[in-house]
Amino acid sequence: MIRDKKYPENYEDFIAWFKTEEDCLEYISRIRWKDGFRCPKCLSQKAWSTDKGLMHCSACGHQTSVIAGTLFQGTRKSLRLWFGVIWWVVSQKNGSSALSLKNSMNFKSYETAWTWLQKLRRIMVMPGRELLNGSVEVDETYLGGEEAGVKGRKAGSKVLVAVAVEGNDGHIGRVRLRCIKNASSEELLSFVTDNVSKNSRIITDAWTGYSPLRNMEFVHDVKNISQSNKNAAELLPNVHLVISLVKRWLLGTHQGAVSEKYIQYYLDEFSFRFNRRLSRHRGKLFYRMIQQAVIQEAITMDEITGKKMKHNI
Question: How many angstroms separate the CA atoms of 74 and 206, rounded?
Fold first, then answer.
């Protein structure tokens, strides 16, 4: 492994870097303790390694492992397999389906592949990520099939999703997507304030749910569709383009078969991929995923499904 580089630049590098479990553990250690070991209990930086591969804190005696408190804790599979799957996931330009993962990585069951992807989707959004800024178009859409008698902002049994899209200098920037309960001011304003920096220009249609923005620390630009000779896609082109891409992605990659229970995690995956669509290095995306895996505690299959399963992965 080349220590002065943060990530392998290509698949050839990836294969050369991670030949053994020890290589993977060393990489996780470098990312988790970039300034040297720090005891999770007392924060001491002095420790020694035990025969079982644990770090024994010299100050308080607490023992921990490199993968304790991470996504990899308690896994029955090798770290080399985990790394291989993560590299495969970030290499898929159009997203990852459980069936594709099963076939590509020779998993024995669809259930296993599905669970691994669910775990990885949960680390695709970085806590405290930078807010959108500049000119930001905001709108909502619902995901799901056609439903008789449901019109406008009434989602029925569908999932209502708020969408925000940067559009600066004629180019689409980053996106944010969130499942919301309804199109009320409470839901919409929470979404905007959580995802858009103050003093940004917020562009919306004339829906009353957005009206309070005029009294907040934003520049609110209202596009009244009913009073215009243009349609919504012309007045809010960036957000409507992203909405169409999300729907096409869900239909193409996942055949539209996404449960309401898990839709937010699929939207997180779409955002992760879209916001990094111009990245030239798969290795950098791999690095970001490992960074997130290090701060994400392990989640069991039971916790993902809400059901008591026969085994964990």
Answer: 51
